[in-house]
Design brief:
about 180 residues; NA-bd_OB-fold; 5-stranded antiparallel sheet; SH3 type barrels; flat; OB fold (Dihydrolipoamide Acetyltransferase, E2P); translation elongation factor activity; elongation factor; cytoplasm
Length: about 180
């Protein structure tokens, strides 16, 4: 159990019999009356966001999420197959859970699966990944005075804006949080 004084962003709690992740919270103490907490919660399963107000000092059960290190194997239609590197179990994860992370998944790469009582809830990517440029236009010297960019399509289908000196076949480090080019790998 956790009280309102110990809340922090990103924590997953059980609220109204649902798994809810704390998106934002604010302690409010008025001149008269008791203190309360405004919470913004996101349902982990459905993605719905709820704003609620609770009394300060209330307690909530914390959801014990397990993290599994898995290796990405392949994609078949809307299912992504992973393999637990310790137990060799191969969970299938739907596109609705993988979401935008699909653009960063390469075969044999390791990611973390967040599970609750055996149910896969989320995929945690590393902060950056190395992807190969599949298609881009050639950049020409003298095209610009400074900082010109061009579009590039990576091996996973991700579209990234890159500097002019990047060519097809180059391996680039891409930030998974923002989807932007970091550097050549």
């Amino acid at each position: 159990m956790i009280s309102t004084g110990e809340l922090k962003k990103g924590l997953t709690i059980i609220y109204d019999n649902n798994l809810m992740r704390i998106v934002d919270f604010q302690h409010v103490k008025q001149g008269r009356g008791s203190a309360y907490v405004r919470l913004t919660l996101r349902n982990v399963r459905t993605g719905a966001t709820v704003n609620t107000t609770i009394q300060a000092g209330e307690k909530f059960p914390v959801a014990q999420l397990e993290k599994q290190v898995v290796q990405y194997l392949y994609r078949e239609e809307d299912n992504f197959y992973f393999m637990n590197t310790e137990t060799y179990d191969q969970p299938a994860v739907g596109l609705d859970i993988v979401g935008d992370a699909a653009s960063y998944l390469k075969e044999n790469e390791q990611v973390d699966l967040m599970t609750y009582e055996g149910e896969v809830l989320d995929i945690v990517l590393p902060p950056n990944v190395v992807l190969r440029v599949e298609q881009t236009e050639p950049g020409y010297k003298g095209d610009t005075a400074s900082g010109a960019v061009k579009p590039a399509i990576m091996e996973t289908g991700l579209r990234v804006t890159v500097p002019l000196f990047v060519n097809e076949g180059d391996e680039l480090r891409i930030d998974t949080r923002t989807g932007t080019y970091i550097e050549r790998a």
